[in-house]
Q: What sequence folds into this?
């Protein structure tokens, strides 16, 4: 899918559990990572993110890359973690959920490398033994997951903690966690035909980083939990947005 250019933001009113954006919604900046050592951390948010039930929404851009690159790594220990990454050897986006030592991988084959911005959502529900990957508003893969043990205490974007070579070369924007499973209609509304919108009033929101500071090494959490994201090793603000 080609890059979707910025569109004029319009006041759309309330849609389901989501407040549509007003004309004043700003989406002017993203975070650019160099693929070498730049990344972002949000460890404090682990206390509000459940490994048993939740959803992650984010916009991303991936430059040409021949190797594996991590979108996110959230972990308790080696037996309980959530990994989301691009597998360069197969051109796949993979969602690994490991709970209680049982690992399940959900695989999407939609092309995302070097073709502009994409929106991706991952949902997981261990009680239903279900995971779903959505790319650009459409469900592209489903899988399984097992009961999670412990509280997440480490969250990285753009790398896998403990690894020196799984770095992300590209951009991140508007990252949000929810404490429930987003329905397909909600995902489509968040995608908004490729035009990011304000999700501050979405029910179930537990963390939300808009990337609009354009200065410093910290990104504010626009949810009620106020868990800041930290930019590490030169991760920088960029005016390149969806």
A:
């Amino acid at each position: 899918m080609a890059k979707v250019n910025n569109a004029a933001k319009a006041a759309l009113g309330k849609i389901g559990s989501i407040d549509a954006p007003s004309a004043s919604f700003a989406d002017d900046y993203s975070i650019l990572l160099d693929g070498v050592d730049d990344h972002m951390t949000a460890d404090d948010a682990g206390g509000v993110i459940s490994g048993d039930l939740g959803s992650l929404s984010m916009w991303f851009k991936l430059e040409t890359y021949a190797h594996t690159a991590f979108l996110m790594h959230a972990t308790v220990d080696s037996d309980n973690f959530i990994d989301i990454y691009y597998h360069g050897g197969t051109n796949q986006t993979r969602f690994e959920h490991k709970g209680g030592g049982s690992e399940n991988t959900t695989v999407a084959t939609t092309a995302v490398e070097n073709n502009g911005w994409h929106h991706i959502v991952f949902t997981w529900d261990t009680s239903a033994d279900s995971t779903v990957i959505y790319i650009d508003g459409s469900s592209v893969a489903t899988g399984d997951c097992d009961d999670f043990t412990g509280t997440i205490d480490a969250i990285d974007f753009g790398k896998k903690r403990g690894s020196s070579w799984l770095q992300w070369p590209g951009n991140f924007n508007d990252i949000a966690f929810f404490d429930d499973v987003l329905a397909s209609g909600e995902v489509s509304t968040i995608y908004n035909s490729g035009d990011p919108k304000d999700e501050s009033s979405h029910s179930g929101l537990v963390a939300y980083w808009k990337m609009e500071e354009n200065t410093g090494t910290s990104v504010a959490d626009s949810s009620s939990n106020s868990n800041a994201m930290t930019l590490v090793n030169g991760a920088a603000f960029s005016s390149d947005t969806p």
Observations:
- The first strand starts at residue 14 and ends at 15.
- Residues 1-24 have pLDDT under 50 and may be disordered.
- The chain has one helix and 18 strands.
- Helices lie at 184-191.
